[in-house]
Amino acid sequence: MGEEEYGRLLEPLLCQAAGYACSILRDRHQAQDAVQQAALRGLERIRTFDENRPFKGWWFAILRHCCIDMLRELKASKIVNLEYVDPPAAVPVDVSDWERLSACMLQLSADHQEILRLKYFADLSYRELADSLSIPQGTVMSRLHLARNALAAKMREEKR
Amino acid sequence: MKPIEPIELSGYLDGELEPDRVRELEAVLDRDPALRADYEALANADRDWKSAARLAAFVPNTQLQLSKPFTHSPFALAAVLALLVVLRMTPKLTDVFAWGLVLHATVLGIALHWVVRMARED
Protein backbone atom coordinates (compact mmCIF):
# COMPACT_ATOMS: atom_id res chain seq x y z
CA MET A 1 0.00 0.00 0.00
CA GLY A 2 1.28 3.45 -0.88
CA GLU A 3 1.07 6.61 1.18
CA GLU A 4 -1.74 8.08 -0.89
CA GLU A 5 -3.81 4.90 -0.55
CA TYR A 6 -3.17 5.03 3.19
CA GLY A 7 -4.44 8.61 3.37
CA ARG A 8 -7.51 7.68 1.32
CA LEU A 9 -8.38 4.76 3.64
CA LEU A 10 -7.68 6.75 6.79
CA GLU A 11 -9.73 9.83 6.04
CA PRO A 12 -13.21 8.33 6.59
CA LEU A 13 -12.09 6.87 9.94
CA LEU A 14 -10.91 10.10 11.51
CA CYS A 15 -14.19 11.29 13.10
CA GLN A 16 -14.82 7.96 14.78
CA ALA A 17 -11.15 7.78 15.72
CA ALA A 18 -11.41 11.14 17.48
CA GLY A 19 -14.52 9.99 19.38
CA TYR A 20 -12.84 6.73 20.33
CA ALA A 21 -9.70 8.51 21.56
CA CYS A 22 -11.87 11.01 23.42
CA SER A 23 -13.67 8.16 25.20
CA ILE A 24 -10.32 6.93 26.52
CA LEU A 25 -8.52 10.21 27.17
CA ARG A 26 -11.62 12.25 28.11
CA ASP A 27 -10.14 15.35 26.54
CA ARG A 28 -10.58 16.62 22.97
CA HIS A 29 -7.10 18.12 22.61
CA GLN A 30 -5.41 14.97 23.80
CA ALA A 31 -7.71 12.89 21.60
CA GLN A 32 -6.69 14.99 18.62
CA ASP A 33 -3.01 14.52 19.49
CA ALA A 34 -3.52 10.76 19.78
CA VAL A 35 -5.23 10.61 16.37
CA GLN A 36 -2.43 12.65 14.82
CA GLN A 37 0.20 10.42 16.42
CA ALA A 38 -1.59 7.27 15.24
CA ALA A 39 -1.92 8.66 11.72
CA LEU A 40 1.83 9.23 11.54
CA ARG A 41 2.71 5.94 13.26
CA GLY A 42 0.50 4.09 10.79
CA LEU A 43 2.22 5.88 7.95
CA GLU A 44 5.62 4.77 9.24
CA ARG A 45 4.43 1.16 9.45
CA ILE A 46 2.47 1.08 6.22
CA ARG A 47 4.98 -1.21 4.54
CA THR A 48 4.41 -3.86 7.21
CA PHE A 49 0.62 -3.81 6.72
CA ASP A 50 -0.76 -7.13 5.49
CA GLU A 51 -3.44 -6.29 2.91
CA ASN A 52 -5.40 -9.43 3.85
CA ARG A 53 -6.10 -7.87 7.22
CA PRO A 54 -8.90 -5.29 7.68
CA PHE A 55 -7.35 -1.83 7.52
CA LYS A 56 -9.72 -0.38 10.10
CA GLY A 57 -8.89 -3.03 12.72
CA TRP A 58 -5.16 -2.64 12.06
CA TRP A 59 -5.23 1.14 12.33
CA PHE A 60 -7.44 1.25 15.42
CA ALA A 61 -4.98 -1.10 17.13
CA ILE A 62 -2.32 1.55 16.49
CA LEU A 63 -4.61 4.28 17.81
CA ARG A 64 -5.42 2.22 20.90
CA HIS A 65 -1.70 1.90 21.65
CA CYS A 66 -1.18 5.62 21.11
CA CYS A 67 -3.97 6.37 23.59
CA ILE A 68 -2.48 3.95 26.12
CA ASP A 69 0.96 5.53 25.69
CA MET A 70 -0.54 8.99 26.21
CA LEU A 71 -2.35 7.85 29.35
CA ARG A 72 0.93 6.46 30.68
CA GLU A 73 2.72 9.71 29.92
CA LEU A 74 -0.04 11.69 31.61
CA LYS A 75 0.17 9.50 34.69
CA ALA A 76 3.94 9.78 34.74
CA SER A 77 3.82 13.56 34.50
CA LYS A 78 1.20 13.68 37.28
CA ILE A 79 -1.05 15.86 35.19
CA VAL A 80 -3.59 13.11 34.95
CA ASN A 81 -7.00 13.49 36.45
CA LEU A 82 -7.47 11.05 39.32
CA GLU A 83 -10.23 9.24 37.49
CA TYR A 84 -7.59 7.67 35.24
CA VAL A 85 -5.85 6.18 38.23
CA ASP A 86 -8.89 4.79 40.00
CA PRO A 87 -12.32 4.23 38.50
CA PRO A 88 -14.74 6.88 39.77
CA ALA A 89 -17.12 5.81 42.50
CA ALA A 90 -20.03 7.40 40.67
CA VAL A 91 -20.64 9.13 37.38
CA PRO A 92 -20.95 12.92 37.72
CA VAL A 93 -24.43 14.27 37.08
CA ASP A 94 -23.60 17.10 34.67
CA VAL A 95 -22.06 15.09 31.85
CA SER A 96 -23.25 14.34 28.33
CA ASP A 97 -24.55 10.92 27.31
CA TRP A 98 -21.27 9.77 25.84
CA GLU A 99 -19.31 10.85 28.90
CA ARG A 100 -21.73 8.94 31.11
CA LEU A 101 -21.34 5.89 28.88
CA SER A 102 -17.57 6.22 28.90
CA ALA A 103 -17.45 6.68 32.67
CA CYS A 104 -19.54 3.54 33.17
CA MET A 105 -17.21 1.63 30.86
CA LEU A 106 -14.30 2.82 32.97
CA GLN A 107 -15.65 0.80 35.88
CA LEU A 108 -15.54 -2.48 33.94
CA SER A 109 -12.60 -4.84 33.48
CA ALA A 110 -9.90 -3.81 31.00
CA ASP A 111 -10.97 -6.50 28.50
CA HIS A 112 -14.59 -5.38 28.62
CA GLN A 113 -13.69 -1.71 28.34
CA GLU A 114 -11.50 -2.30 25.30
CA ILE A 115 -14.01 -4.31 23.34
CA LEU A 116 -16.93 -2.00 24.18
CA ARG A 117 -15.02 1.16 23.23
CA LEU A 118 -13.94 -0.36 19.93
CA LYS A 119 -17.48 -1.58 19.25
CA TYR A 120 -19.40 1.55 20.16
CA PHE A 121 -17.02 4.46 19.67
CA ALA A 122 -15.14 3.01 16.69
CA ASP A 123 -17.91 0.82 15.23
CA LEU A 124 -15.66 -2.14 14.42
CA SER A 125 -17.03 -5.37 12.98
CA TYR A 126 -16.25 -8.73 14.64
CA ARG A 127 -13.41 -9.37 12.18
CA GLU A 128 -11.95 -5.94 12.83
CA LEU A 129 -12.35 -6.39 16.59
CA ALA A 130 -10.58 -9.75 16.42
CA ASP A 131 -7.75 -8.19 14.44
CA SER A 132 -7.46 -5.12 16.60
CA LEU A 133 -7.48 -7.02 19.90
CA SER A 134 -5.48 -10.00 18.56
CA ILE A 135 -8.10 -12.50 19.69
CA PRO A 136 -9.92 -15.24 17.72
CA GLN A 137 -13.11 -14.12 16.00
CA GLY A 138 -15.07 -16.70 18.04
CA THR A 139 -13.97 -15.03 21.26
CA VAL A 140 -15.26 -11.65 20.10
CA MET A 141 -18.94 -12.61 20.30
CA SER A 142 -18.72 -14.10 23.80
CA ARG A 143 -16.53 -11.32 25.19
CA LEU A 144 -18.74 -8.66 23.69
CA HIS A 145 -21.89 -10.28 25.06
CA LEU A 146 -20.44 -10.52 28.58
CA ALA A 147 -19.17 -6.95 28.34
CA ARG A 148 -22.61 -5.71 27.27
CA ASN A 149 -24.24 -7.46 30.22
CA ALA A 150 -21.67 -5.95 32.58
CA LEU A 151 -22.22 -2.49 31.12
CA ALA A 152 -26.01 -2.81 31.31
CA ALA A 153 -25.72 -3.79 34.98
CA LYS A 154 -23.42 -0.82 35.65
CA MET A 155 -25.78 1.58 33.86
CA ARG A 156 -28.69 0.28 35.96
CA GLU A 157 -26.62 0.84 39.12
CA GLU A 158 -25.88 4.41 38.05
CA LYS A 159 -29.54 5.16 37.45
CA ARG A 160 -30.47 4.17 41.00
CA MET B 1 -30.65 -28.09 15.94
CA LYS B 2 -27.97 -26.91 18.34
CA PRO B 3 -29.53 -25.05 21.31
CA ILE B 4 -29.30 -21.27 21.17
CA GLU B 5 -26.69 -19.80 23.48
CA PRO B 6 -27.31 -16.36 25.03
CA ILE B 7 -24.09 -15.00 23.48
CA GLU B 8 -25.59 -15.62 20.06
CA LEU B 9 -28.09 -12.85 20.75
CA SER B 10 -25.15 -10.44 20.45
CA GLY B 11 -24.05 -12.05 17.20
CA TYR B 12 -27.60 -11.78 15.87
CA LEU B 13 -27.91 -8.15 16.96
CA ASP B 14 -24.63 -7.29 15.23
CA GLY B 15 -25.52 -9.16 12.03
CA GLU B 16 -22.59 -11.53 12.52
CA LEU B 17 -24.37 -14.92 12.51
CA GLU B 18 -24.49 -17.28 9.55
CA PRO B 19 -27.80 -17.13 7.61
CA ASP B 20 -28.80 -20.67 8.68
CA ARG B 21 -28.21 -19.82 12.32
CA VAL B 22 -30.20 -16.59 11.95
CA ARG B 23 -33.22 -18.56 10.74
CA GLU B 24 -32.93 -21.00 13.65
CA LEU B 25 -32.58 -18.20 16.18
CA GLU B 26 -35.53 -16.27 14.77
CA ALA B 27 -37.69 -19.37 15.01
CA VAL B 28 -36.75 -19.74 18.70
CA LEU B 29 -37.35 -16.02 19.35
CA ASP B 30 -40.87 -16.40 17.95
CA ARG B 31 -41.81 -19.10 20.44
CA ASP B 32 -39.74 -18.13 23.50
CA PRO B 33 -40.97 -14.89 25.16
CA ALA B 34 -38.16 -14.91 27.76
CA LEU B 35 -35.46 -15.05 25.10
CA ARG B 36 -37.35 -12.42 23.08
CA ALA B 37 -37.41 -10.13 26.15
CA ASP B 38 -33.66 -10.63 26.65
CA TYR B 39 -33.04 -9.79 23.02
CA GLU B 40 -35.19 -6.66 23.13
CA ALA B 41 -33.45 -5.42 26.27
CA LEU B 42 -30.10 -5.97 24.57
CA ALA B 43 -31.23 -4.24 21.38
CA ASN B 44 -32.61 -1.21 23.27
CA ALA B 45 -29.41 -0.79 25.27
CA ASP B 46 -27.35 -1.20 22.10
CA ARG B 47 -29.33 1.54 20.34
CA ASP B 48 -28.90 3.94 23.28
CA TRP B 49 -25.16 3.27 23.56
CA LYS B 50 -24.63 3.70 19.83
CA SER B 51 -26.37 7.07 19.77
CA ALA B 52 -24.48 8.20 22.91
CA ALA B 53 -21.13 7.12 21.45
CA ARG B 54 -21.80 8.98 18.20
CA LEU B 55 -21.89 12.24 20.20
CA ALA B 56 -18.21 11.84 21.08
CA ALA B 57 -17.11 11.94 17.44
CA PHE B 58 -15.64 15.15 16.02
CA VAL B 59 -13.52 16.13 13.06
CA PRO B 60 -9.90 16.18 14.19
CA ASN B 61 -7.34 18.44 12.57
CA THR B 62 -5.08 15.67 11.35
CA GLN B 63 -2.25 16.19 8.90
CA LEU B 64 -0.30 13.55 7.12
CA GLN B 65 3.16 14.50 5.92
CA LEU B 66 3.02 12.56 2.69
CA SER B 67 6.10 12.82 0.51
CA LYS B 68 5.30 14.80 -2.62
CA PRO B 69 5.76 13.21 -6.02
CA PHE B 70 8.99 14.14 -7.79
CA THR B 71 8.48 17.15 -10.01
CA HIS B 72 10.99 18.90 -12.20
CA SER B 73 11.60 22.46 -11.15
CA PRO B 74 11.88 25.13 -13.84
CA PHE B 75 15.45 25.83 -12.63
CA ALA B 76 16.55 22.25 -13.33
CA LEU B 77 15.06 22.40 -16.83
CA ALA B 78 16.67 25.82 -17.42
CA ALA B 79 20.07 24.43 -16.37
CA VAL B 80 19.78 21.54 -18.82
CA LEU B 81 18.68 23.88 -21.64
CA ALA B 82 21.57 26.26 -20.88
CA LEU B 83 23.95 23.32 -21.09
CA LEU B 84 22.60 22.29 -24.48
CA VAL B 85 22.94 25.85 -25.76
CA VAL B 86 26.55 26.12 -24.51
CA LEU B 87 27.46 22.79 -26.11
CA ARG B 88 25.86 23.85 -29.40
CA MET B 89 27.66 27.20 -29.43
CA THR B 90 31.09 25.73 -28.61
CA PRO B 91 31.67 22.87 -31.03
CA LYS B 92 35.45 23.01 -30.56
CA LEU B 93 35.44 22.10 -26.86
CA THR B 94 37.54 19.14 -25.94
CA ASP B 95 35.75 15.99 -24.73
CA VAL B 96 37.07 16.33 -21.20
CA PHE B 97 35.94 19.95 -20.91
CA ALA B 98 32.54 19.14 -22.41
CA TRP B 99 31.91 16.24 -20.00
CA GLY B 100 33.07 18.39 -17.12
CA LEU B 101 30.50 20.94 -18.18
CA VAL B 102 27.80 18.27 -18.33
CA LEU B 103 28.70 17.11 -14.83
CA HIS B 104 28.66 20.62 -13.35
CA ALA B 105 25.38 21.52 -15.05
CA THR B 106 23.76 18.32 -13.77
CA VAL B 107 24.92 18.94 -10.21
CA LEU B 108 23.77 22.54 -10.45
CA GLY B 109 20.36 21.45 -11.79
CA ILE B 110 19.86 18.93 -8.98
CA ALA B 111 20.94 21.43 -6.34
CA LEU B 112 18.56 24.07 -7.68
CA HIS B 113 15.78 21.53 -7.84
CA TRP B 114 16.16 20.64 -4.13
CA VAL B 115 16.47 24.27 -3.07
CA VAL B 116 13.19 25.07 -4.84
CA ARG B 117 11.49 21.97 -3.45
CA MET B 118 12.53 22.71 0.14
CA ALA B 119 11.45 26.33 -0.21
CA ARG B 120 7.99 25.17 -1.38
CA GLU B 121 7.61 22.72 1.52
CA ASP B 122 8.41 25.45 4.06
What can you see in these coordinates?
With 160 residues, chain A is an all-alpha fold. Chain A has one domain (3-159): Arc Repressor Mutant, subunit A (Orthogonal Bundle), CATH 1.10.10. Helix content of chain A is 71%, strand content 0%. In chain A, helix 2 runs parallel beside helix 4 and helix 7 crosses helix 9 (137-159). Chain A is globular. With 122 residues, chain B is an all-alpha fold. Chain B has 2 domains: 7-54, no CATH class; 74-121. Chain B is built from 5 helices and no strands. Chain B is rod-shaped, with a radius of gyration of 36 Å. The relative contact order of chain B is 0.08. The model of chain B has no long low-confidence stretch (mean pLDDT 81). Classes of the chains: A mainly alpha (160), B mainly alpha (122). Chain A binds chain B through residues 3-4, 6-7, 10, 14-20, 22-23, 28, 31-32, 35-36, 39-40, 43, 96-98, 100-102, 120-121, 125-126, 141-142, 144-146, 148, 151-152, 155, and chain B through 6-11, 14, 16, 41-42, 45-46, 49-67.
In short:
The complex is a heterodimer of chains A (160) and B (122). With 160 residues, chain A is mostly helical.
Tell me the distance between the termini of chain A.
Answer: 51 Å
Oligomer: heterodimer
The CATH top-level class label of chain A? Mainly Alpha
* Proportion of helical residues of chain A: over 70%
Main beta-sheet annotation of chain B: none
* Low-pLDDT ranges of chain B: none
Q: Evaluate the radius of gyration of chain A.
A: 16 Å
Total domain count of chain A:
1
Percent range of helical residues of chain B: 55-70%
Radius of gyration of chain B: 36 Å
Mean pLDDT of chain A: 86
Class of secondary structure makeup of chain B:
mainly alpha
Number of strand segments of chain B? 0
CATH topology of chain A: Arc Repressor Mutant, subunit A
Strand proportion of chain A, as a percent range, falls in: under 5%
Number of strands of chain A: 0
Question: Going by CATH, what is the homologous superfamily of chain A?
Answer: Winged helix-like DNA-binding domain superfamily/Winged helix DNA-binding domain
Run of helices and strands of chain B? HHHHH
